[in-house]
Here is the input.
Amino acid sequence: MSQIPTDPPRPALSWKLLPAALLSASGVLLFGIGSEVSGYGLLVLALLLAVLIGHRFARHLALIAAGLVVISLVPLNADLSLGHMALMGGVLTLAVLVPTVASRRLWREEIIRFPVNTGRRWPAAARLYLLGVVAMGYLILPVYLISTGVYRNWPDASEPAVFWRLLLGVNAVGIWDELFFICTAFTLLRQHFPDWQANILQAVIFCSFLWEIGYQSWGPLLTFPFALLQGYTFKLTKSLSYVVSVHLIFDLVLFLALVHAHNREWLPVFLY
Here is the structure.
């Protein structure tokens, strides 16, 4: 049974917020706008300011920054060719491994954890929330995807090979989101900020990443609250397995809605 991590202390608002906000803003430039020069420049500025504030703080921001740089090395899109899926999978894996290994091996820290078996049973409210996630996805996702046309950012899954690759890709990215944005970025930021601040900072980067993946148009009105809810849910449950379950359930509805959007006669259970 893995040890349940305890909540870190909650410091008051401090001057650390500026470099952390610049770090989050660099994610908007790198993934939301696609400006690598500006994004890397803001990232460097954030780390320089962090060094002036404190080495431990700078180290934790650098771990997040390392992940962001690794992610930026590959186009984030729904190209389902085997080559691109392998490349993107390798890069996203490195984005989690680099900060985790560096933190544990170089500085002997156990901050970044992936608590799967927490020893706690999910309460009734948590199980009901999973049903609520299905309902929200069912009502919102088809309207969002079809009315905006953003479903075209994902390929038509009419062919069996594309169907299974899309299902695999959607779920793999969903799991990775929780490993990096929640268990890594959010966890490191919580060492220096109150939970609500750390959650907003991670959600900005999370939302920017999802924009490049394909959640465009008014997608941030959907993805930003989702990112905040995932951070808050992890704070409450301290369980990676639970937040992953939430994400995979939502992504299953997303996958079905994408199939429906490309082929309206398929899955007529959707209202839109």
Observations:
- The chain is about 70% helix and 0% strand.
